[in-house]
Fold:
Amino acid sequence: MKTSSTKLVATGILLHLVLAMSYGAPLFSEHEQQVEALLGRMTLDEKIGQMVQADSGALKDKADVQKYFLGSVLSGGNSDPAAGNTARDWLEFSTSFQSYALKTRLKIPLLYGIDAVHGHNNIDGATIFPHHIALGATHDARLVEQAEHVTAQEVAGTGIRWAFAPCVAVVQDERWGRTYEGYSDNTALVTKLGVAAVKGLQGDTLSPAPDSVLACAKHYIGDGGTTNGVDQGNTLCDEATLRRIYLPPYAAAVRAGVGSIMVSYSSWNGVKMHANKFLLTDVLKNELGFRGFLVSDWAAIDQLSPDYKRDIEQSINAGLDMIMIPNGPGQPNNYVDFITQLKKLVAEGKVPMARIDDAVRRILRIKFQMGLFESTATDPALTAAIGAPEHRSIARQCVRESLVLLQNKKRALPLAKTIKHLAVVGTADDLGAQCGGWTINWQGAHGNVTHGGTTLLAAIRQTVSPGTKITFSADGSDLPKADAVIVVVSEAPYAEMKGDREDLDLSGEDLDLIAKAHATGAPVITIILSGRPMILRSALADSDAIVAGWLPGTEGLGLTDVLFGDYPFTGKLPRVWPASNTHLRSGDTSEKPLFPFGYGLTR
Ligand code: BGC
Ligand code: BGC
Structure:
C-alpha cells in the first residue's frame, strides 16, 4: 500500500519534471487541478473580470472591484492614495481594494501591481535604489538580486505583491527617455541582471512566502530599439536581429520562472506589439514556453485603432491575458466598456472561449502559486522595515559599485577626509535630481521629494573631518579658492514620454560652472548625475576627475564612500559613451566612442 502510493507520487513528480523540462520552465503544474476546478465554476463575467486591471485612480467606487469581479488593480505613477503617501497609507489603500475582491462569490483574490522600478519608489520614506543603468555599471548579479529582494520586502510591506519590473530593454539609442530604465546596451549583461532581478523579486520560485513578489519583465519586445530612440516608436530590424539583440533576456526570464510579462507600446517593423500574435503567442508562449500571463501597457491597446472593440479583439486574440485600463466610468475606453465589448466579442464568436479560458487559467495559476487563496495578509514586520537602515545599506552598496571613474588627472580622487577647504557647487543638495524619474511622482521632481534620504552634500558633510570647511553654492556664485571643488551637474528629472532628447549635451550653465571651478586653479571633480552618457565637450578639459554617478537614489553616502577612498572605484560602463551627438546609437562604429563599453578607471 505504502510502496505503491510512494511509487505513484514519484511517477507524478517525474512526469511533472519531464513536463517542466520540456517547457524549460519550473513547475507550475501542482496547481493545475485547483485552476481547472475553479475555472469550471466561473461565469463569463467572472472570467472577463479576471482579465481586467483597473487603475486605482479610475476606481472612483472601490466596490466596482466586487461588482465587476476585477482580477487586478494597479497604481500608475501618479495614482497615490488620497489619504497620504506613507507605507501605512499604502497598506490601507491596497487592502481596501482587496477586501472587495474577497467579498465576491468565488473570493478570488486581487493582484495589486505597481511600478517598483528602483525600490518601492512611489512610497514616501522607502529605500530608493539607483536606476537600472547604474546597476548595469555594477555588473554584479548577486547585488542586483539582493537589491530586488529588499524591494520585494518593501513592496510586500504595503500589501502589494506585484512589481512592474525588471525592465529588460536592451537600449540601443540613448536619445530614448527611458534609457536609464534599462541596464545596458549589451544583451548578455541585460540578460544576466534581468534574471537576477526576477529571482530577487520572486525568490527562487514565485511562492506563498510573504515577500515573494510577482516580477514583470518589460516591455516585450524591442522597446529600446526604436528609430532615433523615440518613445513608443518603431523598431526596424529583421527577425534574426530581433531575436539576437532583444529576445535573450525574455528567454532567460522565462527559464527563471518570471510570472508576468508586459507588452511594449512600440512597434516592430510597423506592427504594434499589442497586436503581434506571432511574437506574443507563437514565440513567447509556444516557442519559449512562457506559462505566466501577459499584461498590456497603460491604455496601449487603445492605440491599435480608433475602434475600441476592434482593439480588444485584436489584442486578446494576439495573446494578451490582462488589460491595463486607466479609465473609469464616464471616461472613454473604461473598464466597464472593456467588459461589455469583450462579452459581445465572445458572443459573436470573434474571441474564442478557449482564448478566454487560457488567459484566465494563466492568471489563476499565478494567484494559486503565490498562495493568495490561503492568505492576502501582510506581515507587519515588512511594513515596519520599509526604509530601514539594513535596506539602505544595500542601496548604498549599489551606489558605491555603480560609480564609473571616467577621468582622474593628477590623481584628483580620492579626496582626503582631512582636506582643509572643499568647495561644492551645482545640484549637490537635490535629492530629486539624485533619484530621477519614477520617484514619488511619475516624472520625478527636484528637491526634497522623499523622507529619509541623504543628498550628496549631506553625505560629504558627514564624511569629512571636523576641521574641514565646506563652502556650498548651488549656482556657483560663491566659489572661493579652495583645496578642491566638487561640481555636480545633473539632468532634470524625467520619465517616459518626456525624457526623449535629440542631443545629450550638458547645458551651457553646467559647462560654465565647470569652467568657473577650473578657473579657481583648484582640482575640479565633476560628478554627472544623469540617466545616460552625456556629451562632455569642455567639461573634459576643465575637470581633473570625472565620475559618472547615474541616478543613484536616496543613498548619497554611497558616493562619498568612494570619493573619499573608503572603497575603490569598481564600476564599468554598461553602455558605450559617445564622443558626439552624431553617435548616440549603440553599434554605430562610424566614430570612435569617447569611452567604450566596460570602461572604468580604478584609480
Ligand atoms: C509604462 C510602464 C508602466 C505602466 C504603469 C506605462 O506607461 O510604459 O512601464 O509599468 O505605465 O505605470
Ligand atoms: C503612466 C502612468 C502615469 C500616467 C499619468 C501613464 O502613461 O504610465 O504611470 O500615472 O501616465 O497620466
Notes: Residues 2-23 form the longest helix (22 residues). Residues 76-77, 115, 164, 218, 297-298, 496 surround beta-D-glucopyranose (ligand 1) (CB under 6 Å). Confidence is low (pLDDT under 50) at residues 1-13, 15-28. DSSP finds 21 helices and 17 strands in the chain.
